[in-house]
Predict the structure.
Amino acid sequence: MIYTFQLTAADFKKAIGLMATAFLFSFSLHAQGTLQDYQRAETLNGQMQHAVYNSPENIQWIEGQHKFLYSVFTPQGRQYIMVDAAGLSRQPAFDQAKLAQSLSSVTGKPVEAGQLELSNLNIIANGQQLVFRANGKDWTCNLADYQCTEVKKQKTGLVDHDDPEDDDPKGKSVTSPDGKWIAYIRNYNVYIHAAADEKDEYQLSFDGSEGDYYSPQLSWSPDAQKLATNKIRVNKPHWVYLIESSPKDQLQPKLHTRNYLKPGDALSQKQPSLFIVKTKKQVAVDLSLIPAQYSLSSPEWHKDSRSFTFEYNQRGHQEYKVMEVDATTGKVNTLIDETSKTFINYSGRHYRYDIADGKEIIWASERDGWNHLYLYDGHGKLKNQITKGNWVMREVVNVDEKKRQLIFSASGRNADQDPYFLQYYRINFDGSGLKALTTENANHKVVFSPDFSYFEDTYSRVDMAPVSVLRSAADGKIIMPLEKGDISPLLASGWKLPEVFTAKGRDGKTDIWGIIIRPSNFDPAKKYPVIEYIYAGPQDSFVPKNFVTDSRGSLHEMAELGFIIVQIDGMGTANRSKAFHDVCWKDLKDAGFPDRIAWMKSAAKQYSYMDLDRVGIWGNSAGGQNSAGALLFHPEFYKVAVSSSGCHDNRMDKIWWNEQWMGYPIGKQYEESSNVTNAYRLQGKLLLILGEMDENVDPSSTIQLINALVKANKNFDFLEIPGMGHSLGGDYGEHKRRDFFVKHLLGVDPPEWTWKQSISVPKP
């Protein structure tokens, strides 16, 4: 059957108009990198603020009571809640209307009850007085009449000096515990004089000098009969120079300097030193056990004054010792000797607790391939392993010496959960009685009462709103529910939950975890370039595990421009096994890239809309090194990169971070991982962003990369922001980063910047 239609000219014109409108609407809805996409990203930013209701913040237990305070954002504004754990009650912490009225009166500025923003909030004076900070000032408020008074800091006329640095040859005098003697440094040597008579003075050391002096961190034994400190042979400082081109207070630039040690620099060497007050003599301490120091801690006395301990980290971070010095003979005994063929994660996994004045020691170690706790006797003999298994002990929360129990957090113990999720446990010193205090399939953030009998637990996932409960610390049982997060306003804005995605890494066995973020107008029928936000620093793991509206890097906003955004924790990062972590050893250029690429390929097999022919990457600091390195070492996969504040050569960055992972002495591995040395390899599109006042990473690191790229005749873009420190580039840098990806991954000319001046972001 054939149908025929006759249209008038008016009808035809109307039909064409409808078709054009439909086409334009479709283009606006599904185009990528358009002005509408930019505007939607900015609007989404405003809508994400305070878009999660009923999620506790600023939890504060009241000292000496089983009560705590917290605040929540609700549809009616911010509310402050008081919970009585023993009485099982939850109620408003105070009359917010009265407090708002009182603050309005004393400040002369109108304050609404639901808009009270109070920090450092606490209740004192047996529940009769509120103390807090608001509008940049400290306040007290009597809850009987709600009279608020500003607390002003009293000027004493005295200069408040910080404690001197350990390697500062000057310092304050230190009085002995019995008050009879005063110890101090003069002319780089140790002196004491009687408290009752300054003329009754004794010089205890005689070999101090300007370059080899005794530290003012003088430590008296509890019985006041001995004195300990370190003698320090100082190193030469390494000055870094920063030029502030556009200071606010003058026309001419300013030169700034700071002492900033880098890999390979000489380090101070310390000698534990012991003095006997009765004989006024120095006791020699054997130095043969502590050569080539990276660091040596200050002396810590046992309470019975029998000895003092110190910790020794050998340069290279492959040997770490706890050592004891006999207070009578000066003999040095090694209590714990930790060694590793790669590195000891002293900066992230160090834990030591002395039980009963050092009669036992709890110590953390990765010696069995996982971070766990061990119990030693006071002579350094291992008694037993406390925690054990293919999971990671993350942090000791409390040690109960009477019950011989401890509370700790761990991750990876539940095989059916994300191995990064924090769960909390109780265990006996002998390794028995392991009890899970939290179990829900989520990441747990807890705050314990001062006596560790209760704890507030807020658990969530990136794809699950937070839930808050009050638990017993004895067995983890829920005593009462507190809050259930409401993210309906966020979802109503079009914001999409991140997806948690897992795939096998480079070895085909190890699970690699990450997240996928899609734009609010996501269309599975389209093809989307993929951009990875990267930070692969070995000191931690970085994919968010708690519910967040957006993580660092503004990932959801970037997705709105027409991209799929991913974030991944590859091998070489922390919080998994020692073997997982060791991948970074002497090879920071690895950055987990083989795992990241395998992960994205697995995701693209499942989601055909992920276009792996157009992959971008951006990151800051170590992530800046990683993102630039992606185009140098993996140009077959990554096509566009934006790198900000990058430490592009590990020899140019801070000593502790780089020597820990890249090793010592400085060898060819530093060159092999250097973006500067490998600049000639550059393929793809690169934008470098740098703040001229970067205090974290020497800005010359980026400039040296630029120098190498210029010499190699490579095409790249560079943005330097005057006055800015270590950052992703601020609002201006963020805009340039978005434009760079839009132009080079979408093939679209970004919209003119004038739209930014007129956009109105709706308030929540």
Q: What stands out?
A: The longest strand covers residues 610-620. The CA atoms of residues 354 and 361 lie 5 Å apart.
